[in-house]
Amino acid sequence: MMNRIGLFYASTTGNTETVAEQIAGLIDKDVLEMHNIAAEGVSRISDYRYLIMGISTWDFGELQEDWDAEWAALSSIDFTGRKVALFGLGDQIGYGEWFLDAMGQLAELVTERGGELVAPWPTAGYEFEQSKALSAAGDSFVGLAIDEDAQPAETAGRLERWVPEVLVAFDV
């Protein structure tokens, strides 16, 4: 398992699940295993050295409900020695003050617990007011930024550029 990739996500409206499935479609099925944390929780995270984690931001910068329910369990996982690629979904127009905040919170937890974040994503092409998902320099997000509300036509192209970066970072 340690050389396989675990893709963990949760989805309320189906958008995060759809993006997770698109990512899975770009990666060899012999390498990737998908996990919906609403059904499985987060305990299997420890089985993987390489992780892709997908989270959406709700309302005013809140975690998606299934991630929120698993947050305490997630906070006890040791991410030391694990490479983690994040993708986040948010609405830059309707909730521009909190764009991708949940991804920023997840990034903070992963790094505090020893994980190494890989495959940041540039902020160019997005219009938002604030985000907890910005890198320290503020010129990129800590992971792939997806906006299915304002930019659904951009998703496939962004995934086609980002997934190869993730695979290179994972040495897979």
Q: What this model shows, in words?
A:
With 172 residues, the protein is an alpha/beta fold. The chain has a single domain (5-170), classed as Rossmann fold. It has 5 helices and 9 strands, in the order βαβαββαβαββββα. The strands form 2 sheets. Strands 1, 2, 3, 4, 5, 6 and 9 form a 7-stranded mixed beta sheet that branches. The protein has a two-stranded antiparallel sheet with strand order 7-8. The longest helix is centred in the last third of the chain and has 16 residues, at 155-170. The chain is globular, with a radius of gyration of 14 Å. 41% of the residues are buried. The mean pLDDT is 95.
CATH class: Alpha Beta
Mean pLDDT: 95
In CATH terms, the superfamily is Flavodoxin domain
Q: How much helicity do the residues have?
A: 25-40%
Largest sheet: 7 strands, mixed
Q: Classify the fold: give the CATH topology.
A: Rossmann fold
Number of domains: 1
Question: Can you count the beta strands?
Answer: 9
Query: How much of the residues is beta strand, in percent?
Result: 15-25%
Which CATH architecture? Answer: 3-Layer(aba) Sandwich
As residue ranges, the low-confidence spans are: none
Overall 3D geometry? globular
Decide which structural class fits the backbone: alpha/beta
Helix count equals 5
Order of helices and strands: EHEHEEHEHEEEEH
Radius of gyration: 14 Å
Distance between the termini: 13 Å
Pfam families: Flavodoxin_1
Domain Flavodoxin-like: 5-167
InterPro entries: Flavodoxin, Flavodoxin/NO_synth, Flavodoxin_CS, Flavodoxin_lc, Flavoprotein-like_sf
GO molecular function: electron transfer activity; FMN binding
